[in-house]
Amino acid sequence: FVFFFFMIRRPPRSTHCISSAASDVYKRQALMYLNEKIFSNLEEEKESLVGHCDQIADAFSEVLAEVFSHQPQDIPIRFAKYFMTIVSKICSNQSFISNLKEDSLMRLFEEVATKLVYKGLDKLGDNCEGEYLARAFNITILKLLEHYNQTKLFEILITLLKRYKKLAISNIKNIGVTNLIAKYILKTAKNVNASIESLDASRVLVALHELVDSEELLAKGLNDDVGIRVAKAVVYELVRARGEDIWKDYETIKMRDTLIKRWISLSLIHISEPTRPLYISYAVFCLKKKKKKK
């Protein structure tokens, strides 16, 4: 059935334009086949689905990019709705998602996330199709977050956050995507405790270090930067899950780090004394402790 995914992505050459009426017919036929073939015989098709997961995910990404490259009034809304029904169903399959390579997962996540902040998305269509698409996009992302390896997921999301933070400097439109990615990193961080046995915290700290360790950030007010806020929150959740063992994970960035050591120390203190504000100055905290002893 992989042939049908290529029909969605690249209709026959006789259809001069991917968005032409004939092209839409071919794409709808492919989707109808997939809906019938895969979802009525999912167990039978599971091996093939997983075996070609990267090709399928890349086809999804390419189609999403093409469909939303049009002006709002020119988006093939019925096709988009049917297409996202298929995408969200397939992404609900844990084996399909967990076997994706990082590049394919990143591309698919990026395409879906950028569509979630598409201007006027909720107003597309005459019968609430835009609202349906928004729900389908959100469901798809939540399934990607749920089913993918958590270490790799952190690395992918942090890489995307770093990229879109830079893009937002020159194009304000990217601020929405940046904030959305930050939101999903924080959501993933909240689940760290449940996945700590399989999570490689040292790799997550390396990714965070690459996000925040730059002269640009150090020159600004640190607390106003979305990367800094996200990194602090993720570090705190890692410390909650790992406790003092976090210092073993920290060894991988020890020689290069300028910020994360302090956040780890403050997080450990806060966890031991939860009523104290988290980011009170470490020096002030130590001073207060000294006075108490006297």
Features:
single chain, 294 residues, mainly alpha, globular
List the helices and strands and how they pair.
Blueprint: H1 2-9, H2 21-40, H3 42-51, H4 53-67, H5 77-90, H6 94-98, H7 102-116, H8 129-147, H9 150-170, H10 174-189, H11 192-195, H12 201-212, H13 215-219, H14 226-242, H15 246-250, H16 260-272, H17 282-293
Helix pairs in contact: 1-2, 1-4, 2-3, 2-5, 4-7, 5-8, 7-8, 7-9, 9-10, 9-12, 10-14, 12-14, 14-16
Number of helices: 17
This entry's quaternary arrangement is single chain
Uncertain ranges: 10-22, 280-290
Helix/strand-derived category reads mainly alpha
Helix content: over 70%
Give the N-to-C terminal Cα separation.
76 Å
Rg (C-alpha, Å): 23 Å
Overall residue-averaged pLDDT value: 81
- Overall geometric form: globular
Largest sheet: none
Could you spell the SSE succession in H and E letters?
HHHHHHHHHHHHHHHHH
Residue share in β-strands: under 5%
The count of β-strands is 0
Question: Mind explaining what this structure looks like?
Answer:
72% of the residues lie in helices and 0% in strands.
Summarize this entry quickly:
Helices cover 72% and strands 0% of the residues. The chain is built from 17 helices and no strands. Helix 4 runs parallel beside helix 7, helix 5 (77-90) packs parallel to helix 8 (129-147) and helix 7 runs antiparallel to helix 8 (129-147).
